[in-house]
Amino acid sequence: MRKTSLRPALAGITILLTLAGAALFIECSKKADIHAQAGQETVYHCPMHPNYLSHQPGNCPICGMTLVPVNSSTPQTEKGKGKALYYRDAMNPSFTSDKPGKAPDGMDLVPVYESKDQGNGVKIDPAMVQSIGVQTEKAAVRTLTRDVRATATIMPDERRVAIITTKVMGYIEKLFVNYTGQRVKVGQALYSVYSPDLVGAQAEYLQVFKNNDSKDSGQLLRSARKRLMNWDLTEAQIADLEKRGSPERALTIVSPAKGLVAEKMVVEGQTIEPGMQLYKVVDYSRVWVEAAIYQQDIPLVTIGQKGTIDLDFYPGEHFTGMITYIAPELNMESRTLKVRLETPNTPTFKIKPGMNANVMIHSIINKKAITVPDQAVIHSGTRTLVVIAKGGGYFEPREINIGRTAGGYTEVLSNVREGEEIVVSSQFLIDSESNLKAAIMKMSGKKDGESNAPQNH
């Protein structure tokens, strides 16, 4: 009786265990299918708002940023993108990692892919390019010009300064130009002088002139005439002497130069001797502008260039001068080179010697130079680079040789062609000088310790 009653119970337990196992198998199969489907399905999120998830690519409805795929726990190569070189924080590009994961600020790291078809360049995820605001500008042929600015001093033209001296001994009878600043013209009477030597020379000339009958007297007449002219008598005064027939006691001396009397060193009744300075006459119709050019700007100035001259005394007024002289030596104290410009003065002589001025010389450096913006150039000690945008998210760091810089652009001497897209906001790749080497190595796919020098084959 007991054996008969246990058999149905054991059979029921067996059936229950079988059903439970089947149910557990079905549940595990469903979970496996769900995990398998989840592994095949790509989930997208916003780098700025990681909590927002989507099963479709597109833009974040909160900030408008392009959605990026959620990284898996192991490095993977996405189809068509090549191998991921390293991972970077979209919010802080200076933070990089060799493995995917989370950045210290909680953001998911974004992969930077290796380029398989763009030479030595790398491919940066479009989401990262957009988030860091990469901007480009084409390398173009431009005329490089630079304005050389310098301080200057107004000086009188040395060729227009005259010192009037006497050539005979005598006494000043009368001054016709008798104050400093008086304007004189060529041939204008300056003073009258009584000189026994001049009276004797006139009498000698008249004697030869009246006896001008023989061939020898003609030679003597020319000599006597030359003597009077050497003592500053004019042709008109000699003609009057011939008509008058008698010597004149006090002769009038005329000015040989025009300008303003800068100095008067004689008074009426004064005794004068040969070589004594009587007047200093300066012509201010043209003046010199002597500019001090710093040595780095010396190659930019040449004789014949024009410059703009500004005076603080006349705001809004500009004067134009031309370079006529460049000094052969630098000033050892100021380390500047003297450059002289000549400029015409105004009728009222507004440009006065002794004034300070500002000079700007417009210099053409190169009429056909391949140039890139200054902010596109990366200086890394002995190397100079630019980043070339090759399209499709590919970027190539390229070492270049540069020339002069002017007007916000830098002349590129090699390794850049006209029309190539240059990254002008590449400074996001480096936050400080210490990160420069690592950033360039990562972009070019190099490992630490590899040399940047070209290899000899």
Structure in words:
α3 (196-210) runs antiparallel to α4. The chain has six helices and 28 strands. By secondary structure, the chain is α+β, with helices and mostly antiparallel strands. Helices cover 21% and strands 37% of the residues. The chain folds into four domains: 1-37; 136-143 and 367-444, conserved putative lor/sdh protein from methanococcus maripaludis s2 fold; 147-158 and 284-365, Efflux pump adaptor protein, beta barrel domain (Elongation Factor Tu (Ef-tu), domain 3, Beta Barrel), CATH 2.40.30; 162-280, RNA polymerase II/Efflux pump adaptor protein, barrel-sandwich hybrid domain (OB fold (Dihydrolipoamide Acetyltransferase, E2P), Beta Barrel), CATH 2.40.50.100.
Summarize the structure.
The chain is α+β, with helices and mostly antiparallel strands.
By DSSP, the count of extended strands is: 28
CATH class label of the largest domain: Mainly Beta
Residues in β-strands, percent: 35-45%
Annotated CATH topology of the largest domain? OB fold (Dihydrolipoamide Acetyltransferase, E2P)
In round numbers, the mean pLDDT is 78
CATH superfamily of the largest domain: RNA polymerase II/Efflux pump adaptor protein, barrel-sandwich hybrid domain
Keywords summarizing the entry:
disordered N terminus; disordered C terminus; Elongation Factor Tu (Ef-tu), domain 3; 457 residues; alpha+beta; six-stranded antiparallel barrel; 4 domains; 6 helices; single chain; conserved putative lor/sdh protein from methanococcus maripaludis s2 fold; seven-stranded antiparallel β-sheet
